[in-house]
Amino acid sequence: MAGLAKESRTPAFLALVVLGFSFAASHLRWSALVTILQKRVAEGMRSKSKGNKRWTNLGLWQTDAADEDYNAACESLARKLAEAAKLGEGDAVLASGCGRGDELTLYKDEFCVQSVLGVDPDPDAAATFSPKRKDVELLCKTASEAAATCGHEKFTKVVALDNVYHYPSKESFFADAYHLLAGGGRLAVTDILSRTEKKAPLWIVMMLRFMGIPPPNLWSEDDYERGLAAAGFVNIKLERVGDRVLKRWL
Predict the structure, then answer these.
(1) What tens digit of pLDDT does each residue of 171-190 get?
(2) Which of 211, 208, 206 is nearest to 33 (CA)?
């Protein structure tokens, strides 16, 4: 899909689509509880892993082995997202919802980006982030707050690793990302999508609410293409990786 989104700029988008069983929830009512639960689950997974990383994403699993390392799977998902975003030298990257910041150092060290700014609304994330480097920073902010303070066309790439489905509004996030991206910039996210555009049954909606994901965030592939095009993005690409993500959790 191609076309000009705005004169002299054509931001592109690539979503790594996790298709299959989908979750959702009331963001305002349950977000704090969901954050605590996610941390506890991730801590349990990390206790069996090597190293001292603090990843909290769903992971991109390479095998069906029950003992596959959780940290390694999380790094694989972050690396897959970075490759989709085509991160490289000279890039100024905004990582939205970056958690404790492990992905920030991965983007800097493995993909040699010029700079990477992580934003996450959890104050503990910024307070405990250890790599205090001039070109790698983590702030206690949302993407919307970053859009308001960082300036227009500030970044060449915006990425969101396994968190877009929690946002109060995907449309607002895409608009913020478009505002932050320079001409020719790229947005890349991982997300959980519905296989169809049909309305989700009540039991799924209830589960989604419990998990802290706004029910309107249960999008289909067509919803994504329409939503991104409405925000101004072009060259929209979707890649399914659900068979290597959700199978470990279902």
Answers:
(1) 999 999 999 999 999 999 99
(2) 211
CB 61 within 8 Å of CB 247 = yes
Beta bridge partners of 191: 17
Distance separating alpha carbons of residues 121 and 141, to the nearest angstrom: 5
User: Bridge partners of 240?
Assistant: 17
* Three-class DSSP category at 201: coil
Q: Are strands 12-19 and 181-193 parallel, antiparallel or unpaired?
A: parallel
Q: How far apart are CA 178 and CA 171, in angstroms?
A: 11
Whether pTM > 0.85 for this model: the answer is no
Closest CA to 23 of 225, 220, 206: 206
Task: List pLDDT tens digits, range 109-126.
Answer: 999 999 999 999 989 889
159: alpha, beta or left? (left if phi > 0; alpha if psi -120 to 50): beta
CA–CA dist 203, 192 (Å, integer): 17
Instruction: Say how far apart CA 58 and CA 244 lie, in whole Å.
Output: 10
Q: Which residue type is seen at 52?
A: N
The lowest-confidence range among 7-21, 61-75, 103-117, 200-214 is 7-21
Residue 59 has pLDDT above 70, yes or no: yes
On the question of pLDDT at 223 being above 70, the answer is yes
Tokens 């030298």 -> residue: 89
